[in-house]
Amino acid sequence: MYAVNNRKSFERLEEYREAILNVKDVDEYPVIVVGNKNDLESERKVSFTEGQERAKQFGCPFFETSAKSRTNVDEAYFEVWNIYERAH
Fold first, then answer.
1. To 10 degrees, the CA torsion angle through 35, 61, 81, 41?
2. CA–CA dist 69, 37 (Å, integer)
3. DSSP H helical segments within 1-88, as ranges?
4. By the 8 A CB rule, do 36 and 2 touch?
5. pTM of the model
6. pLDDT tens per residue across span 6-32
7. What is the distance between the alpha carbons of residues 45 and 40, in angstroms, rounded to a whole number?
8. Which residues are within 8 A (CB) of 12 and not within 5 positions of it... i.e. 6 or more apart?
9. In angstroms, rounded to a whole number, what is the distance separating the alpha carbons of residues 40 and 8?
10. Is the distance from CB of 40 to CB of 5 less than 8 angstroms?
11. For residues 51-67, average pLDDT
12. Half-sphere exposure of 53 (CA within 13 A, CB side)
């Protein structure tokens, strides 16, 4: 997860993914990319397309959400749940 108004959080996604892979000691692990705070459009530092491209690079689903307005929060949660269910 990254904040759309914080480029540094977006740039750290690869680092977070690598940490997950290292902890799990695997080459692949199911994840999703979530850009949060999409209600802060006027403060946006990361485009929707950049988020999509990063998810494509990781081979995973992508959502932009807003906890404040509840936009796509349930959808992202259910995707995580579906990934978990398929893995177990």
1. 20
2. 9
3. 7-11, 13-24, 48-58, 73-87
4. yes
5. 0.91
6. 999 999 999 999 999 999 999 999 999
7. 10
8. 2
9. 16
10. yes
11. 97
12. 7
Cα 74 from Cα 65, distance rounded (Å)? 9
CB under 8 A, 24+ apart: contacts of 57-64: 58/13, 58/17, 58/31, 58/33, 59/28, 60/30, 60/31, 60/32, 60/33, 61/32, 61/33, 62/32, 62/33, 62/34, 62/35, 63/32, 63/33, 63/34, 63/35, 64/4, 64/34, 64/35, 64/36, 64/38
Q: Residue 13's pLDDT is what? A: 97
In the structure encoding, which two tokens stand for residue 21, read together? 């892979």
**29 alpha-carbon distance from chain centroid:** 14
Tokens coding 48? 């929707």
